[in-house]
Amino acid sequence: MPKDSGIGASPKRREDVRFLTGNGNYTDDINAHGQAYVHFLRSDIAHGTLNSVDTTAAAAMPGVVRIFTAADFEGVGGVPCGWEITDRHGNAMQEPKHPVLAEGKVRHVGEPIAAVIAESLEQARDAAEAIDLDIEELPAVVDMKAAVAEGSVKVHDDLTSNLCYDWGFVEENREAVNQAFQDAAHVTSLELVNNRLVANPMEPRVAIGEYNRSTDDSKLYTTSQNPHVIRLLMGAFVLGIPEHKLQVVSPDVGGGFGTKIFHYAEEAFCTFAAKACNRPVKWTSSRSEAFMSDAHGRDHVTKIELALDADNNFTALRTDTYANMGAYLSTFAPSVPTWLHGTLMAGNYKTPLIYVNVKAVFTNTVPVDAYRGAGRPEATFQLERVVDKAARELGVDPIALRRQNFITEFPYATPVAVEYDTGDYHATMDKLTEIADLSGFDARRKASVANGKLRGLGVNCYIEACGIAPSNLVGQLGARAGLYESATVRVNATGGLVVMTGSHSHGQGHETSFPQVIADMIGIDEGMIEIVHGDTSKVPMGMGTYGSRSLAVGGSAMVRATEKIIAKAKKIAAHLMEAADADIELKDGEFSVAGTDKSVAWGDVTLAAYVPHNYPLEDIEPGLEETAFYDPANFTYPSGAYACEVEVDPDTGKVSIERFSAADDFGNIVNPMIVDGQVHGGIGQGIGQALLEGCVYDEDGQLLSASFMDYAMPRADDVPFYSVDHSCQTPCTHNPLGVKGCGEAGAIGSPPSVVNAVVDALQSAGKTDVTHIDMPLSPGRIWAALNS
Amino acid sequence: MYNFEFEKPSTVADAVAALAGDEAQALGGGQTLIPTMKQRLASPSKLVSLSGIAEMQGVQREGASLTVGGAVSHADVAAQATDYPALAEMAGHIGDPAVRNRGTIGGSLANNDPSADYPAAALASAATVVTNAREIAADDYFQGMFDTALEDGEIITGVKFSVPQAANYQKFVQPASRFALVGVFVAKHADGVRVAVTGASEEGVFRWSEAEAALDADFSADAIAGLTLDPSDMIGDLHGTKEYRAHLVGVMTKRAVAAAA
Ligand SMILES: Cc1cc2nc3c(=O)[nH]c(=O)nc-3n(C[C@H](O)[C@H](O)[C@H](O)COP(=O)(O)OP(=O)(O)OC[C@H]3O[C@@H](n4cnc5c(N)ncnc54)[C@H](O)[C@@H]3O)c2cc1C
Questions:
Q1: Which of A234, A343, A589, B9 makes an SS bond possible with A602, Cβ 3.0 to 4.6 Å?
Q2: What H or E segment, with its residue span, contains residue A98?
Q3: Ranges for the FAD-binding PCMH-type domain (chain B) (predicted)?
Q4: β-strand B166-173 against B59-62: which pairing, if any?
Q5: Which CATH class is domain B166-260?
Q6: HSE value, Cβ hemisphere, 13 Å, CA-based, for A208
């Protein structure tokens, strides 16, 4: 019998009732009394000198409240970067100023130049058209290798070059790795592109700034995954507002995928302008603006090499990556191709020597930052592609080659600085073999061939580092923040609980899964527990949701706070039953004295806490509310094995995904249905990246894929029914729930198996020279490969 | 969007009069025009809706031809053009349900998007575009990308299709927009085969005359096996090269013939 409540049960998501009935409270649903609207005039050229911005005529247009340009932001900080990378030579990365409104130069299409505030949005747009811009166009640089070549146009004149940093990891291993390559029996190398993506959450970004002149308080409503982080970054670095005078609220948020982690210029603008104009200022991004102002994802160009000995053991791995930063450093951009990517290069394998080089490059494009998986998909993709290619070159079974090199003993210290606590890679591969019916593949291939189609099978493994992250460690690595989480559990007199968590839910279902954990701990009904998140005035502190950290870190904080609650409640119960604290047991919402039939109900104890007539007032305070901060001791390491089966139409090059199977190890599972959903969504995005999505600039820096007419999002009929299994569970050893996180796995684990499958299909048709095709695997690209 | 006046006449004559003013524009289903206006790329001073004109509605069979009113939605053609299944099938695959419920045949043909489906159907069906002023043969109507024989203010009141003996439309979708990356409509009429290609050419919809000649002699997919198109006139963009489009025209034509035969 499946459980119907508590940990391991799959109650339906309670938040879906409001989402699916149109009753969600999204930022754009909020309208402040007397609000004005802002429209940003954005650059339509990629690179140019801003000679003048004449707003005289525009300011006289109907309804205009005020027009802002960079001149209004003198003395105001730039949009900060939250992570500093130290390069191979021990130098700090180059960090250009990121002004709220373009200063002196425009550096990418979509950069805001001026902001018009008016009584209505249409009036603001009308006035923006009347602004007289004098921009002297400069040649743009879009290609990363061209950007770091001698004599390239510079994106930032005050930097020495377009190279943000040249990072080596582990630098001390460099020579040993090179030596291992010289000694290798076989070397497989592969050059590939990890395609640039636009996250495109269903809800575009929105910001509303408010200012209260009588109290001097500022307030920002924003579509963020981490409102406290925005409060800190914007308050401390941009606007100089102390945290106690600034409230940031992120109510229901319609998808984030990483792109809503970052602090954006529009947020700072609305907060600043609300005070300057003394009225609320609202901005709602159009989809077109989102394409050219939301941070993009991925965009790596990589060469990877794998060295093997004569017995096909991996002996060394070497990778060279160019990572696009875009024109400015977005909040966590520098960390993505480095610490979130280099540390994952061991994958599931015991390769003893690894060296990762990453050159981060400025170009005249939209900033690039974390997108679902952030660095880990880029690591997994190149590693699992090169392993597949090696198997093909050596004529060995790709699964056998993987198995032979699996890490089998835990804890395992990789040569790239991290220590995996648990895992069982053979178990997930065994499970995959079963659920994907790999033994039936040959028969399915025959059937496809009889239908005039090519069929391919692609398999890959993945490992990710989630539950981000131990604060002292990330501090050493350059993070300008800690990565703990907080929770306050407030028990009311009548026994209901409110949990204020720093984790933010923007689709993950925390309002359902978090109560399952607490309900189990106390033995009460989940309906008695309410989750509050997304408001800096209600939640003590929060680092937010990303890096599959909510349950592993935020959930752990909640467990710790609940443990404190239970400890105090037991003292109250002991007093009520005239027993010793140590003899009190809590089960099914009842406190009892061990070995007796004495008991008091949860509600009696909570009532006593607030009506302390019979209460140990000399020992403990009334009330029942506790806060805990949890800082993880390590990352968590979810892992798994994925298989994709494709059919390719040789006439058109069109790929259809016939089967997709995922065997994941997420440690313990709280709500299997929600986990399934997270994996489904992640795989959908991974398939999107592999087959459909490509953000493309022309050489002048014009965004060619600037709308859904040209940027292909995956639709329901692009993906198959997935076969998803998470019964392999090696619990995390260092957090109280033994959970690992499941939010990004699907997006990390799926692109390589899709590409491996397509290459397999083409090889099966005798195209043995086709060893790689860059994503997205559009029909045109596959047709060209088939006819190469 | 800029402000505009709005009129909804109930006769073609009133619509023509309303369109006489400067910068007035006809509004069909608005599926192309409204997004363009929202982007501020079009700024008509007046929109004249054609959706309240009874004489522009209806799908009627008259002998060998099927007449579709100029304001009939794609969804209505899909449901009502039962006498011309290939046409109904084509209309049933335009865009998504919302687009099909609003978008109209007149709007599609007036717009003449180089990747739209209706132009291929009209050209292959030797259709006649009927306007408030005249009748225009499809061969004379399409004049290149987004260009037609329509005069300013001229309204498509209906389209007369010659129902072929056999026909089929094959659409290979562009993955983002799901318009045709290449679409080929093949129609076998008593007086010959017509092959109309959309999505592929810089010049908009066109007839592939070599294929028509080959199919006149032998209406089978094999008959066109050896034919190729010159890629230099094709569209090349991020979704497909010129060569790929030229190749797809061949594949889609063969599939359409096989499905129709
Ligand atoms: C998401 C989406 C997907 C789509 N997918 C496809 C697709 O797969 N295939 C495809 O072919 N199309 C597709 N379309 C376009 C759709 O078919 C439109 O409906 C069509 O192009 C325009 O028809 P409309 O009635 O909406 O015209 P409108 O947008 O109202 O008008 C378009 C133009 O035609 C003029 N016009 C309208 N009616 C008449 C008339 N009777 N006489 C003279 N001029 C007139 C207008 O003045 C305007 O210039 C898609 C559109 C969208 C939004």
A1: A589
A2: none
A3: 1-166
A4: unpaired
A5: alpha beta
A6: 19
Name the token pair of A645.
Answer: 């089966």
What is the CATH topology of the domain spanning B5-49?
3.30.43
Probe residue for ligand 1, chosen from B11, B12, B33, B170 as the CB with the greatest number of ligand atoms within 8 Å: B33
With contact defined as beta carbons under 8 Å apart, do A615 and A429 qualify?
A: no
ipTM: 0.96
For the residues A598-605, what does the mean pLDDT come to?
A: 97
**Chain A residues whose beta carbon lies within 8 Å of the beta carbon of residue B238:** 694, 696, 704-705, 710
Which positions in chain A touch B2 (Cβ < 8 Å)? Answer: 122, 126
Q: Write out pLDDT tens, residues A416-437.
A: 999 999 999 999 999 999 999 9
The two domains A16-22+484-630 and A31-138+202-255+260-291 share their CATH topology (first three levels equal): no
Atom of ligand 1 nearest to the CA of B42: 49
The answer to whether the CB of A92 falls within 8 A of the CB of A86 is: yes
- What number of C-beta contacts closer than 8 Å exist between A and B? 49
Of B39, B241, B248, the CB nearest to A652: B248
Fold of the domain spanning A300-469+634-786? Aldehyde Oxidoreductase; domain 4 (3.30.365)
CATH of domain B56-162: 3.30.465.10
- Provide the token pair at B166: 């056999």
Taking alpha carbons only, the member of B129, B113, B239 closest to residue A776 is B239
Q: Which residues lie below 8 Å from residue B85, measured CB to CB, with a gap of 6+?
A: none
A105-106 and A48-54: which strand pairing?
antiparallel
In the DSSP assignment, the letter for residue B207 is: E
Residue A344 and residue A321: Cα distance in Å, rounded? Answer: 14
What phi and psi, each to the nearest 5 degrees, are found at residue A315?
Answer: -110, -25
B238/A704 Cβ within 8 A: yes
pLDDT in tens, A32-61: 999 999 999 999 999 999 999 999 999 999
CA–centroid distance, residue B156 to ligand 1 (Å):
13
Q: Is A443 helix (H, G, I), strand (E, B) or coil?
A: helix
Q: Work out which ligand 1 atom sits closest to the CA atom of B33.
A: 29
* Residue B256 vs residues B173, B205, B227: alpha-carbon distances, Å: 15, 17, 15
- Is ligand 1 within 6 A of the CB of residue B179? yes
* Region A31-138+202-255+260-291: CATH code: 3.90.1170.50
Over residues A9-38, mean pLDDT: 96
Query: Which residues of chain A make contact with B240, given a CB cutoff of 8 A?
Result: 778-780
- In three-state secondary structure terms, B186 is strand
Q: Per DSSP, which regions of A382-432 are E strands?
A: 412-413, 419-420
Q: Which two structure tokens, joined as six digits, stand for B205?
A: 């919809």
- pLDDT tens digits, residue range A665-691? 999 999 999 999 999 999 999 999 999
Please work out whether the CB of residue B106 comes within 6 Å of at least one atom of ligand 1. Answer: yes
In this prediction, residues A741-746 reach a mean pLDDT of 96
Q: Which of A652, A654, A710 sits opposite B238 (nearest CB)?
A: A710
Find out whether the beta carbon of B70 lies less than 6 Å from any atom of ligand 1. yes
* Domain boundaries defined on chain B: 5-49, 56-162, 166-260
* Residue A3 pLDDT class (50, 70, 90 cuts): confident
User: According to CATH, what is the number of the domain A16-22+484-630?
Assistant: 3.30.365.10
Nearest atom within ligand 1 for CA of residue B157: 41
Dihedral sign from CA coordinates of A690, A692, A695, A700? positive
Amino acid at B167: A
**Strand boundaries in A703-767, DSSP class E:** 722-725
Instruction: Determine the distance in angstroms separating the CA of B241 from the nearest CA of chain A, rounded to an integer.
Output: 7
C-beta of B103 in contact with ligand 1 (< 6 A) = yes
Give the other-Cβ count within 10 Å of B140's Cβ.
11
Contacts of A711 in chain B (CB under 8 A): 176
